[in-house]
């Protein structure tokens, strides 16, 4: 993340809903309380942007938490509102699962746009990205590629490739296609959901269909290896990441759905109250840190994590009781 250790970054949800229903995204959990679908208004965005810039010295903004930012009909205007106060380092993550205006996106105030992808054919893509419309996504990627070529240097685009067992055979073809399109390619290992999923797996309360999906498709040894590296940690970088909901609430944690049901009022509360809120724990933090889930959540999820040694002395125990037989992570 493009940030110095003392500054804040922000994660801003422009719209808290998504049509794709990914198998491992908490938005597809019928048993987990979901945020109400909401759009951030331009007025809310103007107050949020001004406070982020002038009171928190934010130097990096990521659009998209657990929603699909491009569902927002004024997403480009939102980037302008943020740029107007000096927030120019803007990143957006999207599944490209809605109709887009590729030229408008390229001319927006985004610096970087990443497209989350898990297949290059409908058959493979829809295993994880369950309700994504592959033909639309492919057309969007091609339109974006043409628009980037028409306006070189305006918007950097990358494919964020989610590595699952079922799509490893497409990884090199996906890389080649990304490069043909003029995009960067960033492969990384798929997770099993946010903190909710890690906790539910640990307690044996994750719904059976999700458990079956994880066992069949996710590189569990990778997940466990990285979690083991972080067991027993005592701090979480989340307190320097200002997570903003479309209604202007500041959320405590981006990775925990319960956070969406509470929060502090970023539109009205004092800076001091907001900092206290972010720096205080939520009821899940102690277990989350102790078991290594926070560290896993903030890891790069790339092969570099596989090469990193386990901390010494060896952790007491893995933070996740999962190790599935035959789920070895590939070595690159
Ligand atoms: C929940 S998404 C929200 C933004 C947008 N809807 C998207 O999918 O890019 C936020 C980030 O989570 C990542 N993500 C989603 N599902 C994932 C999975 N199963 N494993 C790893 N990362 C995932 C996406 O690549 C994205 O960068
Ligand atoms: S596209 Fe993004 S927000 Fe939507 S379900 Fe998938 S991961 Fe979640
Ligand atoms: S410790 Fe866990 S629950 Fe607490 S803020 Fe960090 S990631 Fe969220």
Commentary on this structure:
By secondary structure, the chain is an alpha/beta fold. It has a domain at 9-192 and 237-281: TIM Barrel (Alpha-Beta Barrel). Helices cover 36% and strands 12% of the residues. It contains 13 helices and nine strands. It has helices at residues 42-56, 75-84, 102-106, 122-128, 134-150, 171-181, 195-203, 208-217, 220-230, 271-279, 285-290, 293-297, 303-307, and strands at residues 9-12, 61-63, 90-94, 112-117, 156-163, 184-189, 241-244, 249-251, 264-265. It has a nine-stranded mixed sheet, covered by helices on one side. Helix 6 links the parallel strand 5 and strand 6. Helix 1 (42-56) packs parallel to helix 2 (75-84). It starts with 8 loop residues before the first strand and ends in a 25-residue tail after the last helix. The model is unreliable at 322-332 (pLDDT under 50). The structure holds S-adenosylmethionine and iron/sulfur cluster (SF4) (2 copies). One iron/sulfur cluster binds next to helix 11 and helix 12.
Give the gist of this structure.
The protein is an alpha/beta fold and 332 residues long.
List keywords for this structure.
disordered C terminus, single chain, 13 helices, 9-stranded mixed sheet, TIM Barrel, 332 residues, binds S-adenosylmethionine, 12% strand
Q: What is the N-to-C order of secondary-structure elements (H for helix, E for strand)?
A: EHEHEHEHHEHEHHHEEEHHHH
**What's the total count of β strands?**
9
Level-2 CATH architecture of the domain at 9-192 and 237-281: Alpha-Beta Barrel
CATH topology of the domain at 9-192 and 237-281: TIM Barrel
Helix/strand/pairing category: alpha/beta
**What oligomeric assembly is this protein in?**
single chain
Each distinct ligand: S-adenosylmethionine, iron/sulfur cluster
Q: What integer value in Å does the Rg equal?
A: 19 Å
Distance between the termini: 24 Å
Low-pLDDT runs: 322-332
